[in-house]
Each structure stands twice: as structure tokens, then as C-alpha cells.
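User: If only I could read C-alpha cells as easily as an amino acid sequence. Underneath my words sits a plain record pairing an amino acid chain with its C-alpha cells. This is the protein in question:
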Amino acid sequence: MGIEVVIKRRDYQEWLQFCDQIQNATEIPYNEPEQVQKARIKRALSDYNFFVKTYLPNYAKADCGYFHLQAAEEIKKNSNCFAVLEWPREHAKSVHANIIIPMWLLAHKELTGMLLMGKNETDAQNLLSDLQAQLQYNKLFAYDFGEMYNFGSWETGEFVTKDGIRFKAIGRDQSPRGARKGEKRPNYAVVDDVDDDEIINNPKRVDKVVKRILGALYFDLSTKGARMVIAGNRIHSNSILANIVGDTKPGAKKREGIYHSKVFATESKKGVKCYIENGGQPAWKENYTIAELQQKINIAGPTIARQEFYHETAISGKIFKDSYFHFVKAPNYNRFKIIIGYFDPSFENKPTSDYKAIRVWGLYLDQYWCLKSFVRRTDLTSCFSWMIQYADYLKKKHGVSMLWYIERQFFNKPIKEAKSIAEKQQKKQLNIITDTTDKENKYIRILKMEPRYYNGQVFYDVEQENDPDMIEGNNQLKGIEPGYNGADDSPDADEGAWNMLSRYLDSNDFTPILPQRTESSAW
């Protein structure tokens, strides 16, 4: 069992102090002419930034960013909106999704009920308490749009307005069913920051929560117009948020029909990631300077900062550390003693299945070089087609050949059939050697690779540094540790290739496999 994230219930005295701050910041203008109030209300209903600065001064320390305005407008205009707000840390995801947008919808009289899902019930109750405080103690909002709060308490995760609009908090592992209040079925739901470092390493739990969000939660909302908002940043490629969006792998399609607002801390233009060192400017320029963001990055370190600010899911390995992965310019391919590709297949083609992993390694002197990677959830035929194409590329581009290996136990009828189909499609033969090695425990075998990394004898072709398949494969290796439960197909393929490379370490008279050179072609 994993260790559940512990979230403390909000202190009641701290909450009362927060309520006092709201009251003091939202004083009703003394002896205000009616036309002034009407003008303020009219502008607030059409100008989201004005609404925020007028009624929520505690949060409005800066103007809204372009992405706040775009998201609010999209959610407001589309009564059946399913929005994913994938914004960086400290870019006001929770404030807008949980508080400001619901209040804006209330001002427009378009909210009939709200559900808020957090990591657990306590987390959701804490998040909901901010909205309750606004509806209970924001005097200017009540003056312009009417008294709303009636009864209930955030300590129990539920309250109701005078109009019978129900607000309810639930945890990600709770059922949202039965949220209806009289004839009013909720038409707004927020899933706020439900990912954490524990759940992302458990694909079954992730899948269960995703099904609950798209099933029980979404279908508990009104069919005649309901808005769903998922707010968070992508801390892992297999996160709940990533699975909701759908693009868990580079090139994968997003879920059809969603509004996806993806923002990076610094950008070259709206929605286009650009690091500070490459000239990127703050996405929320109204609130942050480059110096402020750079200081945060320097303190947190690039790995964590890129996860929190840029949605990059690099993994810092405990055994196979980041510092072990050296990306440098590879030697000329005809200087490798041997180039070996090792295929670790799986037999299910669905989101929860294992990865198909093919890793290509070369031996240069006593160094192991990773030259290419194919690590995907895909069908077997695609794997063999890729192998044929890559072998052909090596011959044409570098004038060398390679050897392909696969474990004997996997070379069965489905494998042979997929290989045959690929050969017909590519109109070329693919020679594969079955690895007959008797293998010990997988974890032990993978662990035995660590000394060579530690001794600086492992390198990666720098041209593959940003390749999605290379990143996925290396992240799997970094995830290997005692008790791991993540994917290990790529490390298993690495170990298989290394076992074959080791046979050539002492072969000083070995001649590289060099076919006749042909014209170069791009891979």
C-alpha cells in the first residue's frame, strides 16, 4: 500500500481571520448613487478583470493574465464546457477555478450547484472554505448581487445559499453521487490539484480516479448545461490531469471536445514554452518578473522547477541518478565494435498495458552507448516496422549493420505473425536472434547495471536527448528502486542489450559489421 498524503484540517481561528480580511477589504461605498452601483455591476458582468479587482481585492494583487481572461470567458460562454486549466505552480489555478469563476457565474445567475474534488475530503473542505468565506463575508459582492449564504459549514464540507444552491466538497476516492439539492442539480464541478507524488506511481489508482471523474462526477452534473473544470499542473506523464487531457505521450491526441488551456511560466508567445535562458518572458507578466522566476528556479533546482513551471516530468532517480546520464556527441558509427538492438515486447495494446521497448546500444572501447530508443504503448507490427526502418537507416546513413535480439520466451506465434506483417509492409526481411540466456530476477539484473553508470562508462547520443522515446525509457530506468511499481520494460531491454555487448568487451580483434556504403538518408 502507498502512503496517503496527510492534509490537516484548516484552523478555525485562521479561517475567521481570513473572513475578517474579506470584510475589511470589501466595504460598501457610503451613500453611493444608484447609477454608480448599476454601472459597476454592468461592467463587472462583462469585464472579468474588473470583477476580480473590484470584488476580490485580497487576491487581485496584479491584473489577470491573458490565460485567466481566456479561460473565464470560455467557461462563461459555453454552458457545457469541459475545461482543463494546466497552469504552472503559483499561477492562481485554484483561486480562479474554485472561487472567482463560481462567483462570476453566481453574479450571472448561472450556477445551480457546485462540487469540488480535492486529494481527499479534508483537502476539498479546506479549498471550499475560501469560497464559503467570500459568500458569507464579502459585503460588496452581497450588496451588488444579493445575500447568498444561508447555512452549512466548510468543516463538514457542505453549505447552501438562500436560493437553495448547494456546495459540496469530496475527496478523489469518494463518490459524488447524490449531490442534488431539491430540483437544483449541480452544474459546476472543479477537480483541483488531485495529483501527488504517491498516486502518479500507481497507474491502477490513477485510472480509477480518472474513471470516477469522467463517470460519477461528470454525470452527477446537470445534462442541460454543466461546466467541469480540471485545474493543476502536470507533475508526471501518467498523472490524473495528463490522462484527462489524453496526451500522455508526445503526439498522442487530446480528448475530443475539451477546452485545454496550457500555460508555461515563461513563453515565447502565448502557450509556447520558452525557457528564460532562451529568451522566454513571463506568461503572467502582470505579476512576475524574470528575476523573480529565475530566483525560484535557482533555489528549487532545474529538475523540480521544470516540473512545476513547465509541466516536464523528468524523474530524479534514487539509484540511477540524473548525473549518470551523459548526453554527448557519439563517435562515428563505424568505430563501434558492435551495435545491438534489444526488443522487450508486451502483448496488450491498451492504456494500462506494458510498454513495447526497443533499445539500441553500441560498444565503443569499453563504453556502452545508447543510440536510439523506441518505448511506447503500441501494437507489435509497429515495433517491427520501426526496427526494419532503423536498420535500413543505419546502412544508408552510417554504412553499418546491427544485430537484433529478443528473449526466447517472447518469440511466439503473435510475435512471428506481427513480424511477418511488418516485413510485407516494409518489403524487407528482418533477422532477429533469440536470446537463450537463463535470466535471474529482473530487479537484480537491472541493479547490476548501476556500477557501469557510476564509473562513467555509459553514454547517450546527444542527438537523442530530447527524443520522447529516449526520455520515456530513461525515466523508467530512473524509477527503478526497491519496491518500485512503475514500468520497467525499457530497463529490461537495456539489460538484455548490455548482456550481449559484454560478450565483445574482450574481443580486441573483432571487426565491426560494415556493409557496402550507400547514399545517406535522414532517419
In short: Confidence is low (pLDDT under 50) at residues 1-6, 348-352, 509-523. The longest strand covers residues 367-376. The chain has three domains: 12-22+33-263, 265-314, 322-504. The first helix runs from residue 12 to 25.
